[in-house]
Design a protein that fits this description.
- The protein is of the alpha/beta class.
- The strands form two sheets. It has a seven-stranded mixed sheet.
Length: 300
């Protein structure tokens, strides 16, 4: 779910299906409970526009039937389709380049020194979409430390959408997506065995990344703390209360002095404003747990 352009849709001019306020309410409640999505009433035209495709695909007569299907405990597959329909996975390699520059110049040198002494290093791409963010991180690691594969350095990449995780694991992308990769990194990332229309990510980068399906509002199975967490343009889908909980959970699973990187339109709220200090644009450092209160962080 990385880097969406918020919810997008169009006004309704003619309705193919009846879509009542109760239909919208049921869908909004399920989307919030299952995925943390915050659908305001103003998004009703958008929801209609996105989900009519699912009604056609399933040959359903109306939204009431679709809501009944979603309510069935056996409808996990359709709930995943609902998520994909309501979120726009717009992302590209090295999006918000300044985060990767900061990672390369200010974070990785210190982490590599720890890794060379035997300390495991873990970086989490927590809303990885189709994998572009995770592979961009892996390219930074490989560029800064060519022997990274001999050290205990891993990137965990997760997303709530199983369709995105499947694409990420395939590591195949349309040729035009290579335009976003800086020239100096193309040789590190691109395996030209993918054919004329697509390219593949190099196997040595793929080996640094582990992909898995994970819902950020559900339980997290990880037992090890992270050195860096990327969570960019995912929290914009959540209401304020859910965002506060998410920032706090990230603080809990970061090492002292670990880093959190978020999207341009997002800001830390709640107790996380005390747990973190801003060190660059939408980049925050986890304060040591015994550091005590600090002065208010600067605005980005």
């Amino acid at each position: 779910m990385n880097a969406p352009d918020h919810f997008a849709g169009s006004d309704l001019t003619a309705r193919e299906y009846q879509f009542t306020d109760n239909d919208f309410r049921l869908i909004a409640e399920l989307a919030h409970k299952r995925y943390g999505l915050h659908l305001q009433p103003s998004k009703k035209p958008l929801v209609y526009s996105r989900l009519t495709k699912r009604l056609r695909a399933l040959a359903l007569p109306d939204f009431e039937s679709y809501c009944a299907l979603l309510s069935d405990p056996r409808s996990q597959d359709e709930q995943s389709h609902l998520l994909s329909a309501l979120t726009t996975n717009v992302t590209h390699f090295f999006r918000e380049r300044h985060h990767f520059t900061f990672l390369r110049e200010h974070i990785l040198p210190e982490l590599f020194e720890k890794a060379k002494k035997g300390t495991p290093i873990r970086i989490w791409s927590s809303a990885c979409s189709a994998g572009q963010e995770a592979y961009s991180i892996a390219a930074m690691i490989r560029d800064a430390c060519p022997d990274a594969s001999r050290l205990d350095i891993k990137v965990l990449a997760t997303d709530v959408d199983p369709q995105m995780i499947r694409k990420a694991r395939q590591a195949e992308y349309d040729r035009d997506q290579a335009d976003a990769i800086p020239t100096e990194y193309k040789r590190l990332m691109i395996d030209d065995g993918g054919g004329a229309a697509q390219f593949r990510i190099r196997p040595d980068l793929m080996s640094l990344v582990t992909f898995g399906e994970l819902n950020l509002i559900a339980e997290w199975p990880m037992r090890r703390r992270f050195d860096v967490i990327f969570c960019r343009n995912a929290a914009i889908y959540f209401d304020k209360e859910t965002q506060v909980r998410l920032w706090q959970r990230f603080a809990d699973v970061l090492h002292d002095d670990g880093h959190l990187m978020i999207g341009h339109s997002e800001r830390l709220t709640g107790h996380a404003q005390v747990d973190f200090r801003s060190v660059a644009i939408t980049t925050y450092r986890r304060l040591p747990r015994d550091a005590g209160p600090i002065s208010p962080q600067r605005k980005d």
